[in-house]
Amino acid sequence: MIMERRLQVILSTLSLCCLLCGCVQRRMAIRSDPPGALVMIDGEDVGYTPTSVDFTYYGTREIRLIKPGFRTLTTMTEVPAPWYQKVPFDFFSDNLLPYQVTNRHNYSFQLSPQEVTSTEDLLKRAGQLRSEAQLGQ
C-alpha cells in the first residue's frame, strides 16, 4: 500500500515536471515593402504582410509574395537552426529546459512594380513570334 502510494507520487511528480518543461517556439515574421502582400509558405496561404507564423522544422522554405500591381516574388529562403536545436542539444532544449525559448526569424522583401505592356506592343510581339514559328526558326 505504501509502495503503491509512493509510486503514484513519483509518477505524478514526473508527469507534472514533463508538463512544466519548456520547449522551443519557432516563429517566422515576414514583412514586405509595400505591405499587404499575400504570403504563401511552401504553397500554403499564411496571411498578409506583415505577418508571423509558427513552424516546426528548420530548412529551406519557398516564400511567395503576391500583391496586385506588383511582380510576384518567389524565393527559396533558408531558415537555419540555432546551435541549441542541433543534435544532441535539441533533446535538452525541447524537453528539459524549465522555461520556453522563442527562436525568431525575421525576413523583409522589396516588391517591384509590375510593368504594364500596351496592347499594341503585345500584338506586335505575338506577330513576330508567329512569323518565327512559321519560318521554323
Gross geometry: elongated
| Low-pLDDT runs | none
Number of domains: 1
Q: Can you tell me the CATH topology?
A: Immunoglobulin-like
- List the secondary-structure elements in sequence, H or E: HEEEEEEHEH
What does it look like?
This protein is of the alpha+beta class. The chain is built from three helices and seven strands, in the order H-E-E-E-E-E-E-H-E-H. The protein has one domain (17-135): Immunoglobulin-like, CATH 2.60.40. The chain has a four-stranded antiparallel sheet, with no helix packed on it. It has a three-stranded mixed sheet with strand order 4-1-7, with no helix packed on it. The longest helix has 19 residues, at 2-20. The radius of gyration is 26 Å and the shape is elongated.
